[in-house]
Design goal:
Blueprint (H helix, E strand, L loop, with lengths): L9 E5 L10 E8 L5 H11 L20 H6 L6 E7 L3 E7 L7 H10 L2 E7 L6 H9 L5 E6 L8 H12 L2 E4 L1 E7 L6 E8 L4 E5 L7 E5 L7 H16 L3 H10 L9 H13 L3 E6 L8 H11 L17 E4 L3 E4 L5 E12 L3 E10 L1 E3 L3 E4 L4 E4 L3 E5 L2 E5 L1 E3 L3 E4 L13 E5 L29 E7 L5 H14 L4 E4 L6 E5 L2 H14 L4 E3 L3 E2 L2 E4 L6 E4 L5 E8 H6 L6 E4 L6 E4 L15 H17 L12 E5 L13 H16 L6 E14 L4 H9 L5 E7 L11 H9 L21 E8 L6 H9 L4 E11 L5 H6 L2
Parallel strand pairs: 1-21, 2-4, 2-5, 5-6, 6-12, 7-12, 34-35
Antiparallel strand pairs: 3-4, 8-9, 9-10, 10-11, 13-14, 15-16, 15-24, 16-23, 17-22, 18-19, 18-24, 20-21, 20-23, 25-27, 25-28, 25-29, 26-27, 30-36, 31-32, 32-35, 33-34, 36-38, 36-39, 37-38
Helix pairs in contact: 5-16, 13-14
Protein name: Ribosome-releasing factor 2, mitochondrial
GO cellular component, one term: mitochondrion
Keywords: GTP-binding, Mitochondrion, Nucleotide-binding, Protein biosynthesis
Length: 797
């Protein structure tokens, strides 16, 4: 029997289907603000592609990609889920459904790292929301299509939302399709019934009783939609012509200046060209819950988003060539036999154990081959490979360039973590010796950035005998979710678990108790404070008789950045904006005299730095933030040393000594500052503002009308002008909302606020607005605590 609460993978089936040509593969993610309809849209994609036989429902808790108990209980996506399916009988779509809640932003970050394209879903009523702006920014450089969802809702505004996409997300748009409506026989209000396909010059209507039934009607000169179609096509072609000279030539010579004479395939090619170059974003619309508009969205995914052959090349640490072969995909260092992959996600399955999600960037990864983890220096043999379909695994013999799959086997559990780079030979089972030691075995894909935790909770075992089990359970939790962090106070022995938000820690607590069966008590959730230094430490030297020599100092991050040297090796400590610098290490030459590798030494220095900075604050023993541990050039270790254990202990001691020589006055306490967007009625604004600026110490950035194009985090005058000039059809579904004045519209207050003052804000906002107010909060950065507020903060720690 399975342990209580552990999620088991579905039945494993052997995968015999023919491999899809790499040019026909699409690695995409679905990103959006919470409740925009990501999972609902995903379920329809799976159904219409034939992957599933029934449509899952978020409210009923039976969706394919939201399979965790807490996801089904809460009706939200908590962790990203991968699934593959075919479209048009030839394309292979590898899709990752990501969370929309800000507490799970790391799931979005690590998914975007391995994706080639994105579908951004927007709520037609709410428009561009705060989290939409955030995930759009996180997906910078990745080609996207936008799907304006919920067009069947009262107050839906297709054109208003399209205009906001231009003005707030700073992109040109291409209206691939637009909504059409019919009048309700009783109320005469417009009812969404289909879309006008601008590219194919057709009208598509969906049958409300049969989701697979779609009527298609050619738009001719005598059609009621002809005039609208002409204007939409003219606008689209004008935008395309600004960037595509080939289309201009076709328009003038072959189409003889007639917008309606440019054929479907020519337009598709031009839209694809602009999308891949991130010059413009195709816009489509629909109502996923009512099964409307999803098939054209899938067409847009394969028509406009890149294959792995066209996608952005991975960012790597060394100056080696990455070329693209149309036959085999990316080729690194001109070596067709080199396979390069990156691990981006870890899960624990009760049957298979640790499973590592990887994206293959070059070459072919084969099951049973010996691989090298260039991030840690570990060499090991991998077990079976599988491709995931949510919680169902399909076994494969290989993962080719551009594919996303999973490593399994006992050897991967201790040798691979999120962000690690895997290197191997494509043909020889143990061909690592034939790979270049510096350019190939030393190659690393830039790691996945982990956002800083802002909340913490104390965790204690109920009995001393449960301490080991608690530590093992927390270790499993953090291995799967690196945005969770653990620290132990060496003086008190207290264990603190830190995360991205209150909900994040609630989910972690639930998993500890119900899935991992840890017998623990979890304390009150509290804000995570940090300390920093505002002076450089004295250099601490160590030289031993047996041949160890190190000189180390610690300095503020801004000081290190001001004196940056291009030969220095910078390594992120993945936490609290701290770094390790190894002076001159990028120019150490090809000869390496030591028994342990540079990767192993660097890993040891990172570990010692993290440990030393974790509890070195002199004001309240908080972890240090924005600090740099600098290892001076000239360090050495015994030539015959085969272990890094002494490096760990000795360098950690030097860091402690350096920090201990600073005065307490040279430390400062930092607190998390949040960027908030509060949406309230005009009549409630005074009370809400007074509460924010008074009790919550907020710094008000702006007060805007809810749909004001000039508001948002990424306001750009150029795109505001483009938004005003863009041709858009009339929003017939918005009713009175389309003519509301600034005096009666809801207001959006944007502000920066200390997180401590926002812990119970939802209850207060509901009280001030009689339940009508709402807000969104995201991490802004760490700032020094003001003198008047410091005593109150220290009192609680």
């Amino acid at each position: 029997m399975f342990e209580k609460g552990l999620r088991r993978l579905g039945v494993v089936r052997r995968f015999f289907s023919a491999k899809t040509d790499t040019s026909l593969v699409r690695n995409i993610g679905i990103i959006a603000h919470i409740d925009a309809g990501k999972t609902t849209t995903t379920e329809r994609m799976l159904y219409f592609s034939g992957k599933t036989k029934r449509i899952g429902n978020v409210d009923e808790g039976d969706t394919i990609t939201d399979f965790l108990p807490q996801e089904r209980l809460r009706g939200i996506t908590i962790q990203s889920a991968a699934i593959s399916f075919n479209w048009q009988n030839k394309f292979r779509i590898n899709l990752i459904d990501t969370p929309g809640h800000a507490d799970f932003t790391f799931e979005v970050i690590r998914s975007l790292k391995v994706l080639d394209g994105c579908v951004t879903i927007l709520d037609a009523v709410a428009g561009v929301e705060a989290q939409t702006e955030k995930v759009w920014k996180q997906a910078k450089g990745i080609p996207k299509v936008c799907f304006i969802n919920k067009m069947d809702r009262a107050g839906a505004g297709f054109s208003r939302t399209a205009k906001e996409i231009i003005a707030k997300l700073n992109t040109r748009i291409l209206l691939v399709n637009t909504p059409i409506f019919t009048a309700d026989p009783v109320s005469r209000e417009p009812v969404f019934e289909g879309v006008l396909d601008v590219v194919a010059q057709k009208v598509l209507r969906w049958d409300s009783k049969d989701p697979l039934k779609v009527s298609v009607e050619e738009v001719t000169v005598d059609s009621q939609y002809w005039s609208e179609l002409v204007q939409l096509r003219e606008s689209m072609i004008e935008t395309l012509s600004e960037f595509d000279e080939e289309l201009v030539e076709y328009f003038l010579e072959t189409a003889e200046g007639e917008y309606m004479r440019i054929p479907y395939d020519v337009l598709i090619k031009s839209i694809r060209k602009l999308t891949l170059a991130n010059f413009a974003t195709p816009i489509l619309c629909g109502a996923s819950f009512r099964n409307m508009g999803v098939q054209p969205l899938l067409d847009a995914v394969v028509n406009y988003l890149p294959s792995p052959l066209e996608a952005k090349k991975p960012e790597i640490n060394t100056d080696v060539s990455i070329e693209v072969s149309q036959k085999g995909g990316a080729v690194v260092n001109k070596n067709n036999n080199l396979c390069v992959a990156q691990a981006f996600k870890v899960i624990t399955d009760p049957i298979r154990g640790i499973m590592i999600y990887v994206r293959v960037y070059a070459g072919c990864l084969n099951s049973g081959f010996t691989v090298y983890n260039s991030s840690t220096g570990a060499k090991f043999k991998i077990g079976k490979l599988v491709v995931m379909h949510a919680n169902v695994a399909e076994e494969v013999k290989e993962l080719r360039c551009g594919e996303i799959g999973v490593l399994t086997g006992s050897t991967v559990s201790e040798n691979v973590r999120t962000g690690d780079t895997i290197v191997t030979h494509c043909i020889k089972k143990d061909g690592l010796r034939s790979l270049d030691k510096i350019k190939e075995l030393g190659l690393k894909i830039n790691p996945i950035e982990t956002p800083p935790p802002v909340f913490s909770a104390a965790i204690e075992p109920r009995t001393l005998g449960n301490k080991k089990m608690m530590e093992d359970s927390i270790s499993k939790l953090i291995r799967e979710d690196p945005s969770l962090h653990v620290s132990v106070d060496e003086e008190t022995g207290q264990t603190l678990l830190s995360g991205m938000g209150q909900l994040h820690l609630e989910i972690a607590k639930d998993r500890l108790l119900n899935e991992l069966n840890a017998d623990v008590e979890v304390g009150k959730v509290m804000v995570s404070y940090k300390e920093t230094i505002n002076a450089c430490c004295e250099v601490q030297d160590l030289e031993t008789e047996d041949g160890f020599k190190f000189s180390i100092t610690v300095e503020p991050l801004e000081v290190a950045r001001a004196s940056k040297n291009h030969d220095d090796l910078w390594q992120s400590l993945s936490l609290d904006d701290n770094f390790l610098i190894m002076e001159g290490q990028l120019n150490h030459g090809q000869e390496w005299p030591f028994q342990v590798t540079l990767e192993q030494i660097t890993s040891a220095l990172i570990s010692s730095s993290i440990a030393a900075l974790q509890k070195s604050g002199k004001i309240a023993n908080f972890p240090l933030h924005s600090c740099v541990v600098r290892v001076k050039s000239g360090w050495t270790i015994p030539l015959d040393e085969t272990s890094v254990s002494k490096i760990l202990t000795q360098t950690r001691m030097l860091i402690f000594e350096a920090l201990n020589k600073l005065e307490k006055s040279e430390f400062a306490v930092l607190e998390p500052i949040m960027h908030i967007s509060v949406n309230v009625k005009q009549g409630d604004m005074g009370h809400v503002l007074q509460d924010l600026t008074g009790a919550r110490k907020a710094n008000i950035l702006s007060i805007d009308d809810e749909y004001d194009m000039n508001s948002g985090e990424n306001v750009d005058v150029k795109f505001q002008k483009i938004a005003e000039d863009q041709y858009l059809p009339k929003d017939s579904t918005m009713g009175k909302a389309s003519i509301s004045s600034s005096a009666t519209a809801n207001k959006t207050i944007r502000a920066l606020v200390p997180l401590k003052e926002m812990v119970t804000y939802m209850n207060r906002l509901r009280s001030l607005t009689q339940g009508s107010g709402s807000y969104h909060m995201g991490y802004h950065g760490m700032e020094q605590v003001t003198t008047d507020r410091l005593p109150n903060i220290l009192e609680n720690y």
